[in-house]
Amino acid sequence: MSTSLTTARHLALRIIATGVSLPPGKVESSALDRKLNKPVGYVEQHSGILYRYHATHDASQVELAAAALNDALERHEIHHTSIDLVISASAIAYQALPCTAVHILKAAGMAPGTAGFDINSSCVSFISALQVAAGLLNGGTYRRIAIVSAELASRGIDWNDEESSLIFGDGAACAIVERGDGRSGVLASLVEMYPSGSEICEIRAGGTRCNPSSGMDNSDFLFHMQGKKLFRQASAVIDGYFQRLLEKSGLTLSDIATVIPHQASHLSLEHMRKRLYVPTEVLVDIYRHHGNQVAASIPTALHEAVITGRFTPGKPVMLIGTAAGLTLAGMVLLP
Fold it and tell me: pTM of the entire structure?
């Protein structure tokens, strides 16, 4: 597809840099076999993961986020003073107050006075942040925005729940965006929520629902997921959603050069291949070596697409994912 077919109707946005950061704790599935007293190969077979990364208990989420931001700056020789807004796009905040963005600004050594705020739509927070950034850039409010997603998913693992405990990994990723010259941009974005699924996937504590005043226990701070029920609900709506996103972009699947999905599970990726007919060579799949990194999954997969030459000018790219809520979010970009 040539850019001349789309420039008249897209929202200008250019991704000028990406970066990532991983904690040093590489956790092989074979090590989890031993930890959980499972037969050799059990965890890899049931999770689809060879290894993932888990931070130590004293590691800092904001330091991981700052490392990803600085990685993006250094890879592309961008000075930190050129960033006039930092958006933290994570499912879990560093603390309740103040917002995570201000902690990232501090840890990354950003210039005093730099703006920042948080966006949270669970695993698809990065897509939501890109939508907001595009509007702010095109409105002239900011010139260059850093979006950072950082997750320490291992902090919320319930090791008594085999269904969810095997799939999560920690990590952070950053994308730096500006309006650009108008040749690249957002062809379509679409968010849909199905709140009947709000309790299928949740962490109850961390807000006003479960706290010392209202009552809580330790399990309220752990991740709870009814995996089969969540997969059934997502499977029932994703096909139609996928078509609506494509129709909104004015493209067909054959026009999409690269699909960058949330790395939710090996079953979700297989669903994309088989039910949505996304060719394996088009799909960016990093799940086997990262697991589900919650909101950091999509920008980490985006970085993989960038460094492997799968995010190139004139070739449309789709970001897509499902999240707690149940939330579906997607965006079609022209790099």
Answer: 0.96
